Prior knowledge:
A: eight-stranded parallel β-barrel, B: alpha+beta, 2,3-Dihydroxybiphenyl 1,2-Dioxygenase, domain 1, eight-stranded mixed sheet
Amino acid sequence: MTQQTGRIDDFGMDTISLAGPLPAKLRAIRAAGFSQVMLSARDLVGHAEGVEAAIAAVRESGLRVTGFQVLRDFEGLSGRMHEYKVDIAKSMLELCAAVGAKVLLVCSSTSVHASGDRDLIARDLRKLAMLAIPHGIRVAYEALSWGRSIEEFPSAWDVVMRADMPNLGLGLDSFHMFATKTSLDELQWLDPERIFLVQLADFMWQEIRSVEERIATARHFRVFPGEGGHSEQVAELVSRLHAQGYRGDYSFEVFNDDYQQIPLPDVARRARKAADWLGEGILRRSVPLPGRMRLQPTP
Amino acid sequence: MTPPALDRELSSDASDILGLDGIEFIEYATPRPQALGQVLETMGFRPIARHRSREVTLYRQGEMNIVVNASQPAPVDGDGAPDEAPRIAAIALRVRDAAAAYRRVLDLGAWAVPTQVEVMELNIPAIHGVGGSRIYFVDRYREFSIYDVDFTAIPTVDPHPPALADMHWFGIVQYIGNDRMQDWTAFYSMLFGFAVLPDDQRFGVMPKGRVLVGPGSARSRFYVQLIEPEPGILDAKGKEWIARLGLGTPDPRACVALLRERGVAFAETPHVHADERGAVTRTQLGSVVFELVRSEKES
């Protein structure tokens, strides 16, 4: 991240925001001026001509792969269920490596069969990180706001610390952080080197009252940063992360049913607008004393 | 798996939980086995046996075994060597109980390598190591030779040729990608009980990187040296491989003189030359390098 260049390179789109086949998504993202893309395993596996063709399409696109998603409900299981999930994780790690992704996103478990014991969760994440080492992949663990026992980023950070593996870190998703109303002051306890990915999204309404509403909003009604009701919070989040030393990638994790029904270039243009707002308006203005000048509460 | 609490209590001998007892053999893969055989013979290794079903030859001197497998190794693009250059394809470790060691490392997140054995051949458990290489576990080496099962002796040849200049295994040197030092340190320390050597403790004439020391007795203990790309060089491909083998000898100068007589050439540059600490052979066949290191072998 440099001051001189436009900050568009710090932001990427997520394929889940776009309808259609993978090559069309990659073209639209590239055409909007982005240089990176967050891929979903479905993009590869669901490619009409198979996984190899999908990998070739990604490599030919010239886009850097921000990360690969998503391994779900991995941790806290035992016996046969654990063995099964380890197999799934290995398949995903191999796909992740094949497509040149350096980060695998793992969401905190929602499974009723999963233990909430943080030492057990840490043990499983340690194993996952060990599986990722020969492939050179980093594992970003994200607190899903409807996770069974890990639903906020401070809890996710706690198990990342317990697991204590160099290639295991945090994935942050602004939607989940805002949905649980977790205080951004908690960010100060994180080591920015161990934040491996930040996903940004906004949503229209102010309040999310139930877990059901939270899930529905997350899966269908997210919008790009700056389009919803939490623009200031997104701006504050980005500013704080920058001030703390985070220099990694930002990806727009925007699940939206409407965006699935409008032409890809139109969606990509909206994403570009969000990147310009955050990059030019928030991050650049935040140099050299990011955030502190206007966004942190004054004592 | 041992519960975390017990791990803590056992910490005094936890570092040698596998009962690691040195290197049983090193395996090279090469499409030109005879050319590599000639290089090994100049270094003092003698061909002593051939595999029953495959084009594989066993070379030996003293306690060191090298297996040469006539197969096309997986290329390591980015190391500058031609694709047909020999590669170090596997390291076989002596352990107390191979099945238990195998189960333990799989439990911690190692990748099992499916083995393909013919009838009456040994099924040696293996896991993935760096860059497509394998790590075997062997527990039958005291009263019984694994080579008696899979190999037939070459007639009239001494099956136990003595080591030149008391050469013995000293360690392996592994090239790693940018920012991968912590990952590979975690790999060797968690799976095998290696420990980081202090920076002021170095051996031989090639002191770069980080040196890990294996657990076990001084008689069989060996080292793993991890070397990152030169500072400032971004190794975009991030390829990683075992670059060379370290051979210990009590008197490197005498050993160098002996090997020179046999036709071995040593690197002589302003930075590296043979001296009382050690020496490095010139690269043979595009990739084969041995490093000599001063080391007394305890018996």
